[in-house]
Structures are given as C-alpha cells and as structure tokens.
Amino acid sequence: METMDQGVLVHLMxxxxxxxxxxxxxxxxxIQMLKVRAASLRAKRDQLKHQxxxxxxxxxxxxxxxxxxxxxxxxxxxxxxxxxxxxxLLTAWKMQLKDLQHAHHLIGGFDLVECKEGxxxxxxxxxxxxxxxxxxxxxxxxxxxxxxxxxHNIPPSFPLEVLAKQSLEKxxxxxxxxxxxxxxxxxxxxxxxxxxxxxxxxxxxxxxxELCNILVLxxxxxxxxxxxxxxxxxxxxxxxxxxxxxxxxxxxxxxxGSPQWKKNQSLLLESPAHTALLTMKRMGSxx
Length: 287
Known about the structure:
The chain is about 55% helix and about 20% strand. It has about 290 residues and is α+β, with helices and mostly antiparallel strands. α3 (about 160-165) packs antiparallel against α4 (about 170-200) and α4 packs parallel to α7.
C-alpha cells in the first residue's frame, strides 16, 4: 500500500515539475514576443520621425518658395540630399494629385491624369452653367523640377499667369480650384450673353469682350415716346457670374433716376442678365 502511495506521489511530483516547465516555457515565449513587438514599434517610431522630418523640410521648402536647381552644391552628400528632397517633393505632389483626382472627378470640377510616366500631369477643367455642360479646357503641368505649366488651351485673355504666380508652387490644390472657379464664372458670363441674344429679342448686345467682364446692353424703355436705355454691367470679380456694378444711361435723365429703373438696376445686380431682362420685360419696363 505504501509502495502504491509513493508511486502516486512520484507521479504527481513529475506532473507538477512538467507543468512548471511548460509555464516557464510559455512565459519565455511571451517575453520573446514582447521583445519582438517592442523592436517593431521602435522601428515604426523611427520611421514616423523620419517621415515627419521630411514633411517639415518639404513644408519649409514650399513655404519659402525656393527655386529648384539654383542652390550651390558643395559635395556629393549635399547633391544626393538635394536629389532625395526633390524626389520626395515630387512624390508628395503625386500623392496630392491622386487625392484631388478622386475628389474633383466626383464633383465635376476637374480631372487629373498622370502622363509621361509620372513626369507630368494633365488637368481637364469642365465648365457648366445652370445644369448645362459647356466648354472643357486642358492644361499640362510639368513635374520634373519646379511645378510649371507646359501647355494649355485656356483663352489668352484668362489671367492664368497671374493665378500661377500666386499659388501654383505654394498650394497646388488652391491653384486648381481657383482656375476652375474662374473658368466656370467665365463660362457662366458667356452663356448669359448667349441667352440674352436668344431669349430677349428686344435687347441688343452692344459690347462684350473676351472675358465678358464688360457687357453693354441697349434696351427700349416702355415710355411715350420710347426711349433707348444703355445698361452697362461690370464684372470686377472674375470668380463670379454676377456684376459688381451696373450703370443706367438714357437721354431722358429723369428715366434713369426713376424708382422703376432703380429697381431694374438692382435686378441686374442680383440676377443673371437674361433672367433680370426677362423680369423687366414682364414688368413692362422694356419692350
């Protein structure tokens, strides 16, 4: 009986030792896993620090608006560092362009397509007015050194160079949005001139330039006898399709200063030209 008890005790002790051994092994494995994870986290931390450093350099570079290719090169290290910085900048541009491509394709503002194996990008600006798609303009941006416009079919009268100097290299997104806004406003003003000619037959377009920021209309006032009235619309804000100033002129000085034509002046300021003129016609102000 004692021999049996001793055998049971020996067996239990061996199991206990085995359990302790397994526990030690599990603990050792867990410690090893934690060490590996800690090393991985440290590597990720170092990578993030490096990326943050590169981003800061890029921001400083863009903020100072320094031209590329004009810096002095004192050695191979500086040349290599400059090349790496330039490559990082181009990579940042491409990432920004891809984000813009997706966003602005959805809202119909403009589309971007990478071309020439990433050396340039082509931008298509779609214009529309009152739900009708109008003209599409294209522009190619060279990404090889500084970001610059290599070619486009935007009208010569459009202030593209002025907008490029203001924000092309500092903020590409702002530049493209501003160009899109200006082109859509131009398309809207042009379309209004067309609609005035088509819808309001009694009104004659006397003057309109390429930017459509000056529009002179000849109306015939409903009076006895009928009087000719000149309405001059000025669009000083090229991002808008409504005029910033409207002047009314007539041989009959009392007519241009009358309450009715003061109201017509406000209509022309607050509504698209064709809409305002149709309202004036319904009200009996013009023939």
